[in-house]
Design brief:
single chain; alpha+beta; 1 helix; 26% strand; rod-shaped
């Protein structure tokens, strides 16, 4: 059997395997990212961003640059049928599906109806 010193092809294959293992390890160690719907409290820009699951909000807004963007949920009022985007703040990291944790006492900004909101998926 040839050693890497006797056959350069063995050394090349071993090097490629080593580099591949290092790259695979680095990729697998990256935190998983989730696409969040976000809205800036300062400039009202709505956008989406892929962020790690343990992101602590607020994050920087791409429009104004201020660190005032929070996770947002699209809502519909059952009373007036209008939709709007509502900020979910403060947000605790890894708190699960925030769209299902909307406070029941929130009023519709269009008609003022209380407790008539549903999450639009």
């Amino acid at each position: 059997m040839a050693t890497w010193r006797q056959n350069p092809a063995v050394a090349i294959v071993a090097g490629v395997i080593l580099v591949g293992a290092i790259i695979l390890t680095v990729v697998l160690m990256q935190p998983s990212k989730v696409t969040f719907a976000l809205k800036c409290e300062s400039c009202n820009t709505e956008f989406q961003a892929k962020l790690p699951q343990d992101t602590i909000f607020p994050v920087a807004c791409p429009s104004c640059g201020k660190k005032t963007a929070y996770q947002a949920v699209k809502m519909r009022c059952k009373a007036c049928a209008k939709t709007f985007v509502r900020l979910n703040k403060p947000i605790v990291p890894s708190s699960g599906n925030l769209a299902e944790k909307v406070q029941p006492g929130v009023k519709c900004p269009h008609c003022g109806a209380q407790g008539q909101l549903e999450v639009v998926k």
